[in-house]
Every structure is written in structure tokens, then in C-alpha cells.
Amino acid sequence: MNIFVGNLAPETTEAELAELFKAFGEVKSAQVMRELFTGACRGFGFVEMPGKQHSLAAIRGLNGKELHGRPLKVHEARPKEGGRGPRRR
């Protein structure tokens, strides 16, 4: 299951995010979304966990938990609407 994690502090790392979720089960990947040119954290990321049971437990256990003084917003990731990115010519 792909899990959205919002309200991340600028100093949050992917390793930190993965470690946080490992308490609930196997983590396939953890990604902190960053600005293309500056590399600054965009304030959200995604964690992928293989099992639905572990994923739901992580969502329940981590939603609202503080990381770097900020309460996390954790829920199942929804598909991007519209599916449109920048136009390429």
C-alpha cells in the first residue's frame, strides 16, 4: 500500500521516514518529495509497505504523531487527479 505522509519538517530524511514506519512492518520504500532545483523538502512524502494490515496499523499509529515538532498527516495515498504534468514539445 502506498501511504501519504504530510506536514514533514524541512530536515526530514528518507531514512528517518523509513525507520518510523518499520515499527509497523516491512517498508519497501520511503521518499521525501523535494524541490527540483533547490532540493528543499516540499513538506510531504510517500512510504510503500507491502501488506495492507501493516499499512493500516502504521496509518493509525502515526497519524498525528510528532516528528521534528510537527504533527504528521498520514493516510492512504490517492491517485493523482488529472494526470497532467508539464507539457513537453
From TrEMBL:
<feature type="domain" description="RRM">
    <location>
        <begin position="1"/>
        <end position="79"/>
    </location>
</feature>
<protein>
    <submittedName>
        <fullName>RNA-binding protein</fullName>
    </submittedName>
</protein>
<dbReference type="InterPro" id="IPR012677">
    <property type="entry name" value="Nucleotide-bd_a/b_plait_sf"/>
</dbReference>
<dbReference type="Pfam" id="PF00076">
    <property type="entry name" value="RRM_1"/>
</dbReference>
<dbReference type="InterPro" id="IPR050502">
    <property type="entry name" value="Euk_RNA-bind_prot"/>
</dbReference>
<keyword id="KW-0694">RNA-binding</keyword>
<dbReference type="GO" id="GO:0003729">
    <property type="term" value="F:mRNA binding"/>
</dbReference>
<feature type="region of interest" description="Disordered">
    <location>
        <begin position="67"/>
        <end position="89"/>
    </location>
</feature>
<dbReference type="InterPro" id="IPR035979">
    <property type="entry name" value="RBD_domain_sf"/>
</dbReference>
<dbReference type="InterPro" id="IPR000504">
    <property type="entry name" value="RRM_dom"/>
</dbReference>
